[in-house]
Amino acid sequence: MPVRLPRPHRDDMRIAVGGLLGGLLLWGIGLSPRGPQEAVVLWPARWAPLVPLVVTAGCELLRRTRPKAALLIGTAALVADTVTRGNLVTVVMFTDLMYAAVLYGTPASARRLPWVTGLLTVTSALVPLAVWRVPQTLLIGVGVGVVALAPAATGWVVRDHRDAAEAARLRAEQTALLAEMDRAQAVTAERARVARELHDVVANHLSAIAIHSTAALSLDDPATSREALAVIRENSVAGLEEMRRLIGILRDGDADSAPAATPTLDGLSALVGTARANGLDVTLDAGREKVPAPVELAAYRIVQESLTNALKHARPGRVTVCLTRRDGMLDIRVTSPYGHGDGPRAPGSGAGLTGMRERVALLGGTFAAGPDGPWWTVRAVLPVTEGDPA
């Protein structure tokens, strides 16, 4: 199967055509670097310089797609040009082939060519000088340096700058990609945080509303209905207040929003009081020691969600909330009677346990929830940083 050469670049076609036309112009007016009687001219025919000219122009078509092959063929054409009357455009196009071989060739060729041409330049200057002892022979090395070393060195400098620019561009793209990944992770983490806060804020009050509204609809007792409506109103107002606090967090920095207060362990008594008003028999055992704000918020939300789950799912009986700090850890334990009662229940989605587990994981603690004999136990152990609570 024949090998199909790639299509030459448009600029390479312009260079090839321009070089060929320029060489033909110099040949047409008879401008040659050597006369037909010079000793080096082994091919004195007037048309002879056209052969290396055409070959070198053809090599220009490959300067970008096949730089190594173009340089090898162009070198052979340059050697052939030296035994004719010569054409200056052939030499100029050869220097471009040397430049392109370094710029577009493989990294190994790009590193090797400047050294090879440098060694060739020094050899071309010193060997004739040592043989003939004539200072003018140094001009041979100068000519080789101009034709070979200079374009090779120029191509290396340009390639080095181009590679540095490409590396900088890749680093910028990687930095932008990492920044986008960080932004996406931050958005995901913030959405998870808001989801936990929203669930904890709404679930407690809406569960109480659902249970008491079900009781009010199922019992034909005006006193019971009035009591249930009072609880529903209380939970509605509290839920709205919590929602306003959450909106204040989401709209942080808005001049029209009031500062949002973060729940603390000091609010556990009020939280337990609300749970009792909703019908739970709750016992609270919590110390008054200060802990860092993130730990306080996580502990408050874990207790809140545990009481909400007890309200929705537990059998009638005593619910115990115990918080103990020892050995640099805050131990949170909430137990409730395991199993369903006969009263009205609110549906659950399992998001509460997920939210508690995420809160504990963010603080590097441990979490467990499940049946323990006749009790459902929620236990979380949170590490407490020593020093001033933040």
Q: What do you see in this structure?
A:
With 390 residues, the chain is α+β, with helices and mostly antiparallel strands. It has two domains: 10-174, no CATH class; 265-390, Heat Shock Protein 90. The chain has helices spanning 10-28, 50-60, 67-82, 88-104, 107-132, 138-218, 222-250, 268-277, 293-313, 351-362, and strands at 281-286, 318-326, 329-337, 366-372, 375-383.
Number of strands: 5
Estimated helix fraction: 55-70%
Low-confidence stretches: 253-260
- Widest sheet: strand ordering: 1-2-3-5-4
Question: What is this structure's SSE topology?
Answer:
Elements: H1 10-28, H2 50-60, H3 67-82, H4 88-104, H5 107-132, H6 138-218, H7 222-250, H8 268-277, E1 281-286, H9 293-313, E2 318-326, E3 329-337, H10 351-362, E4 366-372, E5 375-383
Parallel strand pairs: 1-2
Antiparallel strand pairs: 2-3, 3-5, 4-5
Helix pairs in contact: 1-2, 1-4, 2-3, 2-4, 3-4, 4-5, 4-6, 5-6, 6-7, 6-9, 6-10, 8-9, 9-10
Q: Summary?
A:
This protein is an alpha+beta fold.
Any descriptors?
alpha+beta, 390 residues, 62% helix, 2 domains, Heat Shock Protein 90, single chain
